[in-house]
Design brief:
The structure holds two protein chains of two kinds.
Chain A: H1 3-8, H2 24-37, E1 45-49, H3 53-58, E2 65-68, H4 74-84, E3 89-95, H5 96-102, H6 104-113, E4 118-123, H7 158-165, E5 169-174, H8 178-189, E6 195-200, H9 204-212, H10 217-229, E7 245-249, H11 257-281
Parallel strand pairs in A: 1-2, 1-3, 3-4, 4-6, 5-6
Antiparallel strand pairs in A: 5-7
Helix pairs in contact in A: 2-8, 5-6, 6-7
Chain B: E1 10-13, H1 16-22, E2 26-32, H2 33-43, E3 46-51, H3 58-70, E4 74-77, H4 81-93, E5 97-102, H5 104-109, H6 111-119, E6 124-132, E7 138-142, H7 147-151, E8 162-164, H8 169-186, E9 189-195, H9 196-200, E10 202-208, E11 250-251, H10 266-281, E12 290-293, E13 300-303, H11 308-321, E14 326-331, E15 333-335, E16 347-352, H12 359-366, E17 373-377, H13 385-398
Parallel strand pairs in B: 3-4, 3-5, 5-6, 6-9, 8-9, 13-14, 13-16, 16-17
Antiparallel strand pairs in B: 1-12, 2-10, 6-7, 8-15, 12-14
Classes of the chains: A alpha/beta, B alpha/beta.
Chain lengths: 283, 412
């Protein structure tokens, strides 16, 4: 175990059951680095997850309080939790299935409300824990176990969706961008509002094997790197490019959702008290 | 003409018999069932409501949106019922008593969240104001189609549920407090299975003045240490887990260890199942509520719950006036099912608001002779007193239900 893992994670739950070469552990370590650099402690942060590779491998690793929601509903649970415990930081770590498919309505409305949580979408571009089917973030045309002739649907970019819905911090990175990812997650954690960080990472067992034809971790990371840079090792252009970095930064520019409700409550109760006092003052 | 003692014995077994005697200072209002359900929740300490508007439960949401801010609570109108009940689960995990309210179409959407709350032992109250179905059916007509859905309110099996049903506006108030108490004590979601008539109906309602002084309300406690899940046991009154107090609690959708870690071992699954089932089964007496009339001498007993229990009860009293040895059973606790109410060997006439026959099947299972269990199904409107009297007279006379229009009697 490295120092960050020893400081923040549960020794009994590490290593996880993740496949050899999976990017989930590496990215979690980067999240820990961001948490550490902000001076946050275990009790300051609640870790929420969903279902699938990212949910299962991240759940209960965090040394503080953990929840693993039903598929797609981590943000719905987090909304209630944030109302009850507004002073905590919420790091919701889910996959592309949770964020960009089954739970997208919650993603949109958490962004619209400016719910004060950080949603990390660790995107392995398909349903890998069920054996490698395409998801809404699988690149169009790529082969998976449910798109043997290439995925016929266009994929979509969840960053565009949350930005349009009103998220106050939106960023994207990939598993080949260690320092940038740490910086983005730190900024996300400093926004008292809805932050979304989309991180693509390789799956060797399924996406790698079926879409790219290799289970070699380094080759799969190379593929991620090429599409992060927009250029292959030989200098030619890749078939598409992910634009990484900050997509939208309106951090702390509008009130956080649960704060609005708390302020409204205070206003309602102050009005009630004033009315009661006025009624009491009458002869 | 034969005569019966009309000073018939009536029994109500429910904690609010005592509560109503103790809470004497208050207001008398003319109000709706949805209002009573809302005030019952506020009185019980509910501080988060998250839901999605749906007829005939919408008024609960509207009342909550006004009342919760007044008492420092939170009203959330969610994007759908899945979000609603999950947000309630989150709020309850954060330490707030929580409620959501819906009707059949929304209730089925909550099944994922229901299972999550059951397995993680998260207290909350879910109101299902039933309307006639299937699916959207008629939004403004009563139904009783979720009797079994409320029992099997999530997938996967290996759990018991607690389901209560009121039959008056006043009872809706007390029963809601009771539902919150049971949710806290059993660490589980409790469904209030009501219907369009009880929800929308306006009636005399007594509300105590001082909710904070209601000493029968079970307060929220916080479990601050291991074990988070006392597996293999059936104890009541285990403090609910809380997220945000740094206890290191883990809750998830998976089969869990005492720490809440996900585990894929049969022994852990059995230990979890033992607790989820037996904390309810071993403590059935703690959630037994019912009303009976005239069981001392009854030969034919009408069985009904919710809105139509009112016309059915009137029908029973009228049948007795006409000389029929009629009795009445109104289960208030629908689940766990109160088998003991049907132990006596006599005729049972089960009146419910569906044509497929749900409650009647459980009465057939519990009664000594299922050939003496008769079904009077009605759909979208209440049984009339005349229908009930005709049914009871027919069974008393010939052991069979007479043919009646709009009444289904077949159960297969």
């Amino acid at each position: 175990m490295n120092k960050l893992a020893a400081k923040y994670l549960r020794p009994s739950q590490i290593p996880t059951k993740a496949c050899h070469g999976c990017g989930i552990g590496m990215i979690e370590n980067w999240l820990l680095q961001a948490i550490d650099e902000l001076g946050l402690k275990q009790e300051d942060v609640v870790l929420g997850t969903g279902i699938g590779c990212v949910g299962r491998q991240t759940y209960a690793t965090w040394g503080g309080d953990n929840f693993g929601a039903t598929h797609g509903r981590a943000l719905a649970v987090a909304t209630g939790l944030k109302l009850a415990q507004p002073d905590k930081k919420y790091l919701i770590v889910v996959g592309d299935g949770d964020a960009a498919s089954i739970g997208t309505s919650h993603l949109i409305h958490a962004a619209r409300r400016n719910l004060g949580v950080v949603l990390i979408c660790e995107d392995n571009m398909g349903y890998q824990s069920t054996g490698g089917q395409f998801s809404p973030t699988t690149p169009a045309g790529y082969v998976s176990n449910s798109s043997p002739y290439g995925m016929v649907e266009p994929s979509f970019d969840p960053c565009d969706v949350v930005k349009a819905a009103g998220a106050t911090f939106v960023a994207e990175s990939t598993a080949t961008q260690w320092h940038q990812t740490v910086k983005l997650v730190k900024k996300a954690l400093q926004n008292d509002g809805f932050s979304f960080v989309h991180i693509r990472f390789p799956c060797n067992e399924n996406f790698g094997a079926y879409a790219l034809g290799t289970r070699d971790t380094l080759k799969n990371l190379d593929w991620i790197y090429e599409h992060t840079q927009g250029r292959k090792a030989d200098g030619s252009e890749s078939d598409f490019t992910w634009e990484t970095g900050i997509k939208h930064d309106a951090s702390n520019s509008r009130p956080e959702f649960t704060r609005i409700l708390r302020d409204m409550n205070a206003r309602v109760r102050a009005d009630m008290a004033a009315k009661a006092a006025a009624a009491g003052a009458k002869p | 003409m034969p005569t019966l003692d009309l000073a018939v014995k009536e029994t109500l077994v429910a904690p609010w018999v005592d509560w109503a005697r103790r809470a004497t200072q208050g207001r008398r209002l003319l109000e709706a069932g949805t209002y009573a359900l809302t005030e019952g929740a506020i009185a019980a300490g509910c501080r988060i409501f998250a839901g999605y508007p749906i007829t005939p439960a919408t008024d609960i949401a509207e009342y909550m949106s006004k009342r919760l801010p007044q008492v420092g609570g939170y009203y959330m109108q969610c994007e759908d019922e899945l979000a609603g009940m999950h947000a309630c689960a989150g709020g309850s995990l954060g330490g707030l008593k929580a409620m959501t309210a819906t009707s059949g179409p929304g209730y089925t959407l909550m099944h994922d969240a229901y299972g999550w709350a059951i397995t993680n032992e998260i207290p909350m109250v879910v109101v299902d104001a039933m309307r006639v179905g299937p699916i959207s059916g008629i939004t403004g007509a009563p139904g009783q189609g979720e009797f079994y859905v409320a029992r099997y309110c999530t997938h996967g099996g290996n759990f018991e549920t607690i389901v209560l049903s009121p039959s008056s506006v006043q009872e809706a108030f007390w029963l809601t407090i009771d539902a919150f108490n049971l949710a806290e004590r059993f660490r589980t979601p409790v469904t209030i299975l009501t219907d369009q008539v009880i929800s929308d109906m306006w009636e005399d309602l007594f509300l105590p003045d001082d909710y904070a002084g209601l000493d029968f309300v079970v307060p929220r406690k916080h479990n601050l240490m291991m074990p988070f899940f006392p597996l293999g046991g059936a104890e009541l009154d285990v403090a609910p887990n809380v997220i945000g107090h740094g206890t290191g609690v883990c809750v998830s959708a998976y089969t869990h260890t005492e720490e809440g870690y996900d585990i894929e071992e049969m022994e852990a699954q059995w230990a979890q199942t033992y607790r989820l089932i037996n904390k309810v089964r071993h403590n059935r007496a703690e959630c037994t509520r019912y009303e009976t009339v005239g069981l001392d001498d009854a030969e034919v007993v009408a069985v009904a719950y919710g809105a139509n229990a009112r016309t059915v009860k009137t029908g029973v009293l009228e049948a007795r006036r006409r000389g029929v040895r009629a009795g009445f059973v109104r289960p208030i606790t629908l689940w766990p099912f109160l088998d003991e109410l049907y132990e006596a060997d006599r005729h049972y006439v089960v009146c419910e608001l569906n044509y497929d026959g749900q409650l009647v099947r459980e009465v057939m299972r519990a009664a000594p002779d299922k050939n003496k269990v008769h079904f009077m199904g009605k759909s979208a409107e209440l049984h009339t007193v005349a229908e009930v009297v005709a049914g009871l007279e027919g069974v008393a006379r010939s052991g069979r239900l007479p043919e009646l229009p709009y009444i289904w009697t077949e159960v297969r």
